[in-house]
Amino acid sequence: MGTFQIEGGHQLKGSIQPQGAKNEALQILCAVLLTPEKVVIDNIPDIVDVNKLITILSNLGVKIQKLGKGKYSFKSDALHLEYLESEQFKKEGGGLRGSIMIVGPLLARFGKGYIPRPGGDKIGRRRLDTHFEGMIKLGAKFRYNKEERFYGVEAPEGLRGTFMLLDEASVTGTANIVMAAVMAEGETTIYNAACEPYLQQLCKMLNKMGAKISGIGSNMLKIEGVKALNGCEHSILPDMIEIGSWIGLAAMTKSEITIKNVSWNDLGLIPATFRKLGITVEKRGDDIFIPAHTEGYEIETFIDGSFMTISDAPWPGFTPDLLSIVLVVATQAKGEVLIHQKMFESRLFFVDKLIDMGAKIILCDPHRATVIGHDFKSTLKATTMSSPDIRAGISLLIAALSAKGTSTIHNIEQIDRGYENIDERLRAIGAKIIRTA
Ligand SMILES: CC(=O)N[C@H]1[C@@H](OP(=O)(O)OP(=O)(O)OC[C@H]2O[C@@H](n3ccc(=O)[nH]c3=O)[C@H](O)[C@@H]2O)O[C@H](CO)[C@@H](O)[C@@H]1O
Ligand SMILES: C=C(OP(=O)(O)O)C(=O)O
């Protein structure tokens, strides 16, 4: 179990370049299974979850070549489908959430797809019904082995386009169904589709490969099935969750930070939400400039003077993956805010650790926490903690960087799942952080 030692209380300064988006990369990498032709992908983040998926693809027989930093080519012309029934796959496939998205492309191209119960953050129930209901609608037969927690879909006769209304706008579910449907016979309509930039990017890439998808960016996707897909080149967008993390980090450590090349038009409500906390988020070309908040920052109220609430919603709502970061930043704001995590039921328990550090937080129930900011009148105190999930992990890291004294964070593998080389990148802007094995 790796550990970070963090000496907090220092202002940081400089520029930081966001990595490629984790959640987009996981979708895009699965899409390489849809064609026997070469697919070149650029801006792939070097993070644990993505590297695990690349290993799975390699074990499946995908020929992978590194072309430069973050740039790889993939060729899925001679796959070893027997790997899908091996004990090794049962272990490796369950190592991350994103692996679930190999099922749709395999079903589309080979008429079968299997997956063990996927891993990912332990942040509450994470069901897969939407994925499989969509594939069943397309004509696949579904089976589930309860003992082994192993899922399978088969469609030896091929898939047929249809209309479907998803029971929820699942991000990975929509990606999986889209990839299953691109080569189905006839037209598929997916209503209540998720439409995060991750999915918009996936659909654009698939269209470059010869798919016929319209409605991109909306919650109604129409897909006209094609016989086969060809190769393409694709570049992954900057990670909007990392960008939000750096905005929070800058404000809470009173640091002046420029976040480079953020693809501003794909950030949705992220800048506006941090502004509600009183943080100055300045657009400079395609960069974000955060000035040093030496006087602190003050949470807005609603127009009628009532208490601010920040909650998550499917895109274009505010992403649930940034709520833990908003929460930690609010602990030093002037004012109060209610954080309402609607999607996941176990994602707020990490606030106990912030309370230990001196933050004023009331956990109202598993979904809601009220934060009363200190307005920097009292700093957080250093402590020893363990990172329960990726976003709680980065939030604790931000708290430790703002705290007085030296904190220790264990289980930093959780942070490495989604943040590339984070200690070195933070040291480059002045953070005092040491990694020990
Ligand atoms: C690898 C990957 O891409 N992971 C992301 C993906 O996970 P993932 O695709 O697994 O998440 P889903 O979109 O399926 O659902 C997330 C949670 O929200 C609930 N839900 C979802 C949609 C909805 O309309 N109502 C609702 O309540 C689900 O029941 C579930 O508990 O999307 C999540 C939601 O943005 C993000 O937190 C994850 O980082
Ligand atoms: C919940 C997350 O990831 P995953 O779905 O991969 O567990 C996340 O990125 O915040």
UniProtKB/TrEMBL annotation:
Q: Where is the active site?
A: D121
GO annotation, cellular component aspect: cytoplasm
Q: Which reaction does it catalyse?
A: phosphoenolpyruvate + UDP-N-acetyl-alpha-D-glucosamine = UDP-N-acetyl-3-O-(1-carboxyvinyl)-alpha-D-glucosamine + phosphate
Q: Which residues form the Enolpyruvate transferase domain?
A: 7-426
Which enzyme type, at the first EC level? transferase
Q: Spell out the CDD domains in the cross-references.
A: UdpNAET
Name the positions where phosphoenolpyruvate binds.
Answer: K22, N23
Bilayer-crossing residues are: none
InterPro entries, per the entry: Enolpyruvate_Tfrase_dom (IPR001986), Enolpyruvate_Tfrase_sf (IPR036968), MurA_subfamily (IPR050068), RNA3'P_cycl/enolpyr_Trfase_a/b (IPR013792), UDP_GlcNAc_COvinyl_MurA (IPR005750)
- Known Gene3D superfamilies for this protein? Enolpyruvate transferase domain (3.65.10.10)
Q: Name the keywords, alphabetized.
A: Cell cycle, Cell division, Cell shape, Cell wall biogenesis/degradation, Cytoplasm, Peptidoglycan synthesis, Transferase
Q: Does the keyword Cell division apply?
A: yes
Annotated metabolic or biological route of this protein? Cell wall biogenesis; peptidoglycan biosynthesis
| Molecular functions (GO terms) | UDP-N-acetylglucosamine 1-carboxyvinyltransferase activity
> Per the UniProt entry, what are the Gene Ontology biological process annotations, in alphabetical order?
cell division; cell wall organization; peptidoglycan biosynthetic process; regulation of cell shape; UDP-N-acetylgalactosamine biosynthetic process
Query: What family is reported?
Result: Belongs to the EPSP synthase family. MurA subfamily.
Say what the protein does: Cell wall formation. Adds enolpyruvyl to UDP-N-acetylglucosamine.
NCBIfam families (alphabetical): murA, PRK09369.1
Q: Which PANTHER family match?
A: UDP-N-ACETYLGLUCOSAMINE 1-CARBOXYVINYLTRANSFERASE
Q: What is this protein called?
A: UDP-N-acetylglucosamine 1-carboxyvinyltransferase
Which species does the entry assign this protein to? Leeuwenhoekiella palythoae
